[in-house]
Amino acid sequence: MPYYRRVGQVPKKRHTTFRQPDGGLFHEEMMGAEGFSSDCSLLYHLHPPTTLTDVQSWEPEALALEPNAPARPRHFRPSDLEGDGLFGEDAVLGRRLVAGNDDVEIFWAAPTTTSPLYRNAMGDEVTFVVSGRARVETVFGVLEVERGDYVHIPTTTTHRWIPLEGDDPLRLLITAARGHITPPAKYLSKRGQFLEHAPYCERDLRVPATTFLADGGEVDVYVRHREGSAVLTFAHHPFDVVGWDGCLYPYAFSIHDFEPVVGAILQPPPTYQTFQGPNFVMCSFVPHMLEFHPEAIPVPYNHGNVDSDELMFYWNGNFSSRGKTSGIQQYSMSVHPTGWSHGPHPGAVEGALDLVESGVSFVDETAVMIDTFKPMRFGCAALDSDQPDYYRTWFQPVSGSAA
Ligand SMILES: [Fe+2]
Question: How far does the centroid of ligand 1 lie from the alpha carbon of residue 95, in Å?
C-alpha cells in the first residue's frame, strides 16, 4: 500500500543505532518492492533475520495444470471435494489448484489446523475468506479475519494461517500472483491516495495494530520460489519484530465495505474492479440497488470479453443472471473463456424483469471474479469437480425435438 504506517518501536532516524534494553542492537531489515524503487518498510528484529541453520528442498504438491481443451465454458465445485482427501489440513501445504497460468495461481483450501510458517517469494497473495474465521500471524503483526474478508499478504512476508472456532468451517479462495497485486491505478491519485470515486478507501483497510512476538529456535519456513522452493530453517523465530514503519505491509478489508456504483442502466464490470495484478484483475460484484431507468434490464447482456478468461466465484445470493437451468449454486465457479460470448441463461432476463415488476428494488448477490489476460488452465480442485454438461446449459431444445 502506498500510505505510511508505523507500529511499535522504531528509532527516530532510519539506519541509525537502535538499542535493546541490554545494550545490544536491534537488527534492522528493509523489505522493498521493485528493486527498492517502490513501496518498502523497515522492520526491527530482536535477532538477525539472516541466520539460517539448514536448507531442505520443497516440492509443493499437485501444481499440474491442464489446458481448457477444447476451449469451452466450465463449471467447477471444489467445495464438493472437501472430505474426499484432496485438500490437506492446513492453508499452505493443503491448498489445491483450481486454475492458473504463468501470471497467477488460484487455489481452494479448507484448512482445519495451523499452517507452517510460509513465504511466497513469487508474488503477492490475496485470499478471500469464503467461510469461517482465522487468525493470520505475520512478521508485521496479526490480522483477525472472517467470512467476506480479502486478506492481502505482500510477497515474502512470513506468515501462517490459524483456523478459529466458529459456526462455519474455514474455506479460502487464494489468488497468488507472480508479481504484485494492488488497488487499481484508476482509483488512486498520482501520489497513491484513494480518490473520491474509489469504491473503497484507506479507512476500510485493517492493518496489524501491534507487533507480535513468538519464541523459538530452529524454526522452519516454507518458501515458495520461482525455482527451487525450499524449507529454510532459522536459528530464531521470524516473529521477533518490535516495530516497523513504511508502506509495505499486510492488510485485510471486507467485501461488505466495497461500495457499489449504481447507474440508470447496468454498470459494466470494471465498475466493480477491486485489485489489479500482472495480467489479471479481480472484481467484487456486490449487492446494490437496481438500475433506475424505467426500462432498464437488471442483468448482464451477452458479452464477449475478447482478451480475458473469466473465472466467477458465486459466493452469496441469488445469482440472477445464471438462471435455474445453469446448475450454478453457492460456491460454484464458472470459467467463461475467450472465443465465446456469454450472457444470461434462458429465462434469466425475463425472471429479473418480473421481479422488478413485483417491486423488488435490490440485487442481493455477491461474487468474486478473476479475469486473466492469458488462457486459464485447470488444476485438480477444478478437474475433479468438473460439471461436464455446463456448456450446454444455455441451450433449450424446441419442444418435441430431440435433446
Ligand atoms: Fe462476463
Answer: 26
